[in-house]
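Run folding on both entries below.
>entry_1
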Amino acid sequence: MEEPLRDVSDTALWVAMYRALESERPDAIFRDRFARQMAGARGEAILASIPKAKSLAWPMVVRTAVMDEIIMRLVGQGVRTIVNLAAGLDTRAYRLDLPPDLAWFDADLPAMVAYRAEHMAGVAARCRHEEVAVDLRHAAGRAELLARLPADGRPGLAITEGLLVYLTRDDVAALAGELSGAASLAWWLIDLASPLLLKMLARSWQPTLQAANAPMQFAPAESTAFFEPYGWWEVEFRSTWAESRRLKRTVRFAGLWEFLGRFRSAETRREFGRMSGVVLLERK
């Protein structure tokens, strides 16, 4: 019997299913009308194979919504180039209200790019959209991608959603240095995990991911200070927990957990506050 989750690329089908489930709610906080067709039957099978998968949808939904907000704010401030690394089945270039002169690059492995192209055939993007087939595991491929970004003097944005946690510290350091060296990029939007989060996921997601040779591993104890030697500084940290409360997409008994949290030390509360989040980094 084929394993539901074969490799790290299959996580894109899994996340697309979460976007589909949210989009189909009457009170959806975002609408991705392409998500279910992107996820397909394999996406449903993957979701069914992961223990408590549906009850753990909320962090993925929150991440999508918060990143949407930050992207649109930066676009409103003048960003006209966006490069989405390991784009997976992201459809923001098709579903967000983007200016037509914005250049959006979705970069991923050739098989993923071909899959996206097949499922989005005949659908017009909202901006100048380009699919880039590249193996981002290799420095030469990353350099080729960054060389394609327009050097028009306007600040650009890099996005790595759901990518860094699967990389090693050395891989993330190399990527951070390369992005910092790209003159066209001023911002980098990431999601970041902590060691505490990986410990909490050890019994739910991690076994399935390890079986697919895609374990979660990058969760720096120093948080965003990790990126400072490579020229990136935190300008905004949006706690997944806090945003889940704001967006009303949170875990059951969230109020009880917050009440109990009042009796923890200040240091423990800070640790939980930065357990997971969406982060905007600025190149200095």
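>entry_2
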Amino acid sequence: MKPVRICSLVLILSTVLLFSCKKEHAPVTSPASYDYVPVNTGHWVVYDVDSIVHADNDNNTDDSVRYFHFQIKEVISSTFIDGEGRPVQRIERYHKQANSDEWNITNVWTTTVTSNRVERVEDNIRYVALAFPINSTISWNRNSFNTLGEDYDTYNSFHEPIELGSFSFDSTLSVVQLDAESNDNYVEKIYFEEKYAVHVGRIYKVYQDLLKNAGQVVSGLDYTETVADYGNQPL
């Protein structure tokens, strides 16, 4: 398992196991590329989450694989100005079990859209989620603002329509690891992909950090988020 992914794996596993003087600042310009990241207060997205945790077991028997299903809701609750004078969106994150109607807030993340990138702070770790301009040649180090080590992403597709579940999106983009193919081999599979839709934000995420023995998965995490609903007013 690569060390650059260990911290992310721990953070996601923690979530899974928990749920068995004003100044005026000019806004960042918003051509279509920036519209993949909504910044308006009140915008929300609900995700269906499916997670498979493989315990350390060379036989990978049924009792060593644990399945989880729950929902996550992300809400842009407000915008504030950071120490560099940049508008920052505060994102409140809620969880609930599939059979529960009660949302429980669990943590707060932030998003910062600049002229050349989108920064996400997740559990006090800053990542570069997207880079601008969006094109087929750009790549960026997702971990350039943290200590997890180099991890380069690129665009697999952009400005393309897709259907996802019951939704049809006119313009989406896909972010993948630059070396995704080489990270799927006989001893491991490390894969990361996110999809974004214009005026919606992230609509899909898959994270796989799996250790194999003779090609068979014996430990690790297979985690997926898929958009279930979204809107621009509080739920």
